[in-house]
Write a structure and sequence with these properties.
The structure holds two protein chains of two kinds. By secondary structure, chain A is α/β, with parallel strands linked by helices. Chain A has a single domain, classed as 2-Layer Sandwich (Transcription Regulator spoIIAA). In chain A, about 50% of the residues lie in helices and about 15% in strands. Chain A has eight helices and six strands. In chain B, strands 6-8-9-11-10 form a five-stranded mixed sheet. A five-stranded mixed sheet of chain B has the order 19-12-13-21-20. A five-stranded mixed sheet of chain B has the order 14-17-18-16-15. In chain B, helix 2 packs across helix 16, helix 4 runs parallel beside helix 6 and helix 5 runs antiparallel to helix 6. Chain B starts with a helix and ends with a helix. The chains are: A alpha/beta, B alpha+beta. At the A-B interface, helix 1, helix 3, strand 5 and helix 4 of A face helix 1, helix 8 and strand 2 of B.
């Protein structure tokens, strides 16, 4: 894990833009975080950041359109968000990248990823 | 790529296990050379190759998977009796084993796992061609992906099975799976390469609320329906690297009975009702009930019932609850009870135990000074426990010498072949244990001695016949414990060392003076002199004269000694004595003048007070003592360490023995036993003839550790010179 953290700069992993995404219809107050990768190394810091952010009642949109790396921990993380009704209304994600979709399909988690994506809800 | 990054540590385990399995393959092949019909060994060789292939596949190391597949197929044909196991096959399998080892090394060093490294391409192509000569036509085409290979194998097995089997796999991952570096996705990829995952149902029942989530823990499970031509062992081995605490059930859907289905559902951690739901969700419906099998199955007896079924019909029930998944080979029981620990962690532990020993010695010292009885009792109890901890900690580093010895089977085979000699290797004491670091460092010196024995010691069949010996020579590797040491012997029944030839060569090389008188033992030791070689021809096996002195140096660097016994025409034995451990010893503390010294307790036989009548006026003279009628040469430490402090009123003899030789060490005081943590000395003490290291005592003072073998050697030499004079 430490190796992952070495090569993956946190700011590269997710950048908080706080801008309303063009494709979001309802998220005027929504923060958008871009995830370049979501492996087990990124999950813990993202989890802490997300928890802190949710305390402020602010919704978050995770941009995984260009997510190039995701592992089982990352997919489980997204499934955990979608599985929790108190959270899944405030945390959503974009249409997944090809890599995310492929890995989700491999683990049978496609429906969970699709359910949490903005495109699916629209 | 994520897989490679996350599974770095798991890949490390793969590399270590692959090497171990390759070592096993080598051993099995050498055993098969002796008995080609040994089906158990054939099966074991096949299983080892199969496991390497399966594990490599899990880690995406396709370059290994593809090559090993050919080898595995050939071994499969051998064990099925379709082709024989002859000398040519043996050589081919050994060469393949070497090639796989090179592939493993290359990938571990960063080579692409999907392409054969350029320097190995030619060798691999040649080996593949030779393997193909043993393969069926319908399995020859290996240029495409593994799916084709799987199909070919399926075709081969079609007579035994009606179409591909459908396996139901219930997998529950342990919470530590992900943070241990394991990821189920590559395993599913691997399975897909050999069949079709028709249903993948993730089980997220254990997933907590987001607030309670630990994102590095794994909460997942899977219900899978897998269609393949492969058998149960293949499916189970795909999950070999699951961490402890994971569970796996694999059931053949075609042959599953209603009872088995019920038992499977009941055995799932989610409970029977949810279990049934999950099975149905993954496309595994309960089979129709058969009247004679209609009894209900209690939930608590899942394993029992499944196991009973398996015994009745091995193909029917394919797995009972598996709590820790390991390869189903004969070593699985032992392997599942072992854990791999990085050696630096053990080193840290041993260092800490060493510091604990020193600290405790300080406490004991304090208690003694305070003359507090209850404190002394308490420290004694602590000391006893620390001694146990010390032995336990050191025991963790102990490994059997057997693995090192087994490597020489191949060396003896290949070297004797290339030299045109017939040699059998005899190994005893394989289970003798010694420190891992010693085992690692003794390999090279042993290799040199073995090669030397093969090249120079043992004769050709013709020479042996002329000498009236059997045409086949014997090389022995023996290990045993002796006086707190490990003794390793490398022996041969060859021509023995030629005394005159050695002396002539030593004089030529200027190692000894022409008129120097030497005992047989001293002449034998000349072969360890730098640059000494009596070989008539320099060969690529040995005989450059650069090795034997290095052998001696390497052994001495391990605080060991090497001695040679030889008899012309009968053979030669090299005896290597090594300490059990390099870190902590039991010591016997003695005093000379104001200084304290430590004698390793393993050498000490007894202590005697030196009678005043034998003291003599010169306390710096060596002396000889009549030990119950036995002549005992003694060395006075006052002389050795040039001690000028006041002459003591009485002295003591510590009788020590090493390599069957007894000698006395004369010291002023005896201080008793103490655990001694060995600290290395700097180069400045390199040439000191009596010191092997130092230790820190409880009071913080430094005590030097006596090098008993060297001291005894000097005493014996002196005695020999005196007696000759």
């Amino acid at each position: 894990m430490s190796e992952n953290q070495d090569w993956m700069n946190e700011s590269e992993a997710y950048a908080v833009t706080d801008e309303a995404p063009a494709h979001s219809e309802t998220a005027a107050q929504e923060s958008e975080w871009t995830l370049a990768c979501l492996t087990i190394a990124e999950c813990a810091p993202l989890y802490e950041k997300l928890k802190a952010h949710l305390n402020d009642e602010q919704p978050v949109l995770l941009d995984i359109r260009n997510c190039q790396e995701i592992d089982t921990a990352g997919l489980q993380f997204l499934a955990a968000i979608q599985n929790d009704p108190e959270v899944n209304l405030r945390v959503r994600w974009t249409q997944p990248s090809e890599e995310v979709a492929r890995k989700a399909s491999r683990l049978g988690l496609t429906s969970w990823i699709e359910a949490g994506s903005v495109g699916a809800m629209a | 790529m994520t897989f490679e990054l996350d599974l770095d540590s798991a890949r490390g385990v793969f590399f270590a296990e692959a090497r171990q399995l390759l070592g096993e393959v080598e051993t099995y092949v050498l055993q098969l050379e002796q008995d080609p019909q040994d089906s158990e060994t054939l099966n074991a060789a096949f299983r080892a190759a199969h496991t390497i292939k399966g594990s490599a596949g899990v880690f995406g190391l396709s370059v290994i998977t593809h090559f090993v597949h050919n080898l595995e197929t050939v071994l499969d044909r051998v064990r099925n009796g379709e082709i024989g196991f002859d000398a040519e096959m043996s050589t081919l399998v050994l060469e393949c084993r070497d090639h796989i080892s090179e592939l493993v090394d290359a990938i571990e060093n960063g080579a692409d796992a999907t392409e054969v490294p350029a320097e190995l391409v030619q060798g691999q192509d040649a080996l593949t061609q030779r393997l193909k000569a043993y393969l069926h036509d319908d399995t020859v085409n290996h240029q495409d992906e593994l799916n084709q290979v799987a199909q070919a194998q399926g075709a081969q097995n079609s007579s035994a099975h009606q179409g591909p089997a459908q396996w139901h796999i219930s997998l529950r991952l342990s919470p530590s799976t992900l943070c241990d570096g394991f990821d189920p996705a590559p395993i599913l990829n691997y399975l897909s390469a050999y069949g079709e995952l028709k249903q993948i149902v993730p089980v997220i029942d254990k997933l907590p609320s987001f607030q309670a989530l630990d994102p590095e823990l794994c909460y997942l499970g899977f219900e899978l329906t897998y269609e393949t031509d492969k058998d149960l062992a293949f499916v189970e081995e795909a999950f070999e690297f699951l961490t402890e605490g994971s569970s796996l059930n694999v059931v053949n859907m075609h042959t599953c009975t209603p009872e088995q289905w019920d038992a499977l559902a009941a055995g799932l951690p989610e409970g029977q009702a949810r279990g049934e739901e999950l099975l149905r969700e993954s496309g595994f419906e309960r089979p129709f009930a058969l009247p004679e099998l209609g009894e209900s199955v209690p939930a608590a007896l899942v394993g029992e019932v499944l196991a009973k079924r398996a015994a009745a019909q091995p193909d029917e029930v394919v797995s009972v609850q598996v709590t820790q998944k390991k390869a189903p080979n004969k070593n699985s029981a032992a392997a599942s009870q072992s854990i791999r620990v990085p050696s630096d962690k053990l080193d840290t532990l041993i260092n800490l135990v060493g510091e604990l020993v020193i600290a405790n010695a300080g406490t004991v010292e304090q208690a003694k000074q305070m003359n507090n009885t209850s404190m002394l009792e308490a420290t004694s109890a602590v000391a006893s426990l620390i001694e146990e901890i010390r032995d336990g900690a050191l025991g963790l580093r102990m490994v059997q010498i057997g693995e090192t010895f087994q490597r020489f089977q191949r060396v003896v085979r290949d070297t004797s072949k290339s030299l045109g000699k017939q040699v059998t290797l005899e190994i005893t004491g394989e289970d003798t244990e010694l420190d891992k670091s010693v085992v690692e460092k003794i390999g090279d010196p042993l290799m040199h001695l073995v090669r030397n024995a093969l090249d120079h010691g043992l004769e050709t069949p013709e020479e042996r016949a002329a000498a009236g010996k059997s045409g086949t020579g014997k090389l022995g590797l023996h290990a045993y414990h002796d006086s707190g040491h490990i003794v390793i012997e490398v022996s041969d029944n060859g021509r023995g060392l030629a005394r005159e030839k050695i002396i002539r060569k030593a004089i030529e090389k200027g190692i000894i003076a022409p008129d120097q008188a030497l005992s047989d033992a001293e002449v034998n030791m000349l072969i360890f002199a730098p640059g000494f070689s009596t070989a008539e021809q320099v060969t690529d096996i040995s005989g450059r004269g650069v090795g034997m002195d290095v052998v001696k140096k390497n052994i001495e660097a391990l605080r060991g000694t090497v001695q040679v016994r030889s008899q012309v025409g009968v053979g030669t034995t090299f005896e290597i004595r090594l300490p059990l451990t390099l870190a902590i010893i039991d010591g016997f503390m003695i005093g000379v003048g104001n200084e304290i010294y430590v004698i390793p307790l393993g050498y000490v036989r007894e202590c005697l007070e030196l009678p005043t009548e034998v003291l003599g006026s010169d306390d710096r003279m060596d002396l000889h003592y009549d030990l119950r009628g036995e002549f005992l040469p003694c060395v006075r430490l006052r002389k050795v360490f040039d001690c000028h402090s006041g002459k003591p009123k009485r002295e003591n003899i510590i009788v020590v023995s090493f390599g069957g030789v007894k000698a006395g060490i004369v010291a002023d005081q005896l201080h008793g036993e103490s655990q001694t943590v060995i600290k290395p000395l700097g180069n400045i003490f390199e040439n000191n003839r009596a010191i092997s290291g130092a230790t820190i005592m409880g009071n913080g003072n430094v005590a030097l550790i006596i090098d008993v073998p060297k001291l005894i050697g000097e005493v014996v030499n002196l005695t020999a010179v005196h007696s000759e004079v």
